[in-house]
Design a protein that fits this description.
The protein contains one helix and ten strands. It is an alpha+beta fold. It has a single domain, classed as Sandwich (Jelly Rolls). The protein starts with a helix and ends in an 8-residue tail after the last strand.
Length: 156
Amino acid sequence: MTIRRLVLALCCLELAAIAHGLHAQAKPETIAMTPPEMKWGAQGGLAMAGMEQVNLVGDPSKPGPYTLRLKFPAGYKLAPHSHPDSREVTVLSGTWYTGYGENFDAAALKALPAGSFYTEPANLAHFVEVREPVTIQVSGTGPSGRVFVKPTDNAR
């Protein structure tokens, strides 16, 4: 019985050491960034033609948490699509129109003005229409991506 307790104690100590080592490796870096310091790109892990993206924290194409911002021009539409990860979205500027379902339905669009928040559960089809320039902030846990309901909708 004593040997079992000793082995159990050693295993617990080893697990604690491993956890401490992983925590030390994952030490978060501090970020304090003003809008002019953000490096927007015409393409990114989730940006498509006509959109702009800036990664604030993490990388949506890799495992782990990420936060990014996306800019959309007026008139932009995204056909029904889903993402493999659950996401939280905040509308920073403009009015964002979104709806859920596998078919684009203008009557199902909900107007979300600046300051609004919504979620995109993993693998739930949704669609978007942008009537004025809009900037959103998206947070999730990667790897992320976009899968269109109809693969032919992959191009804007």
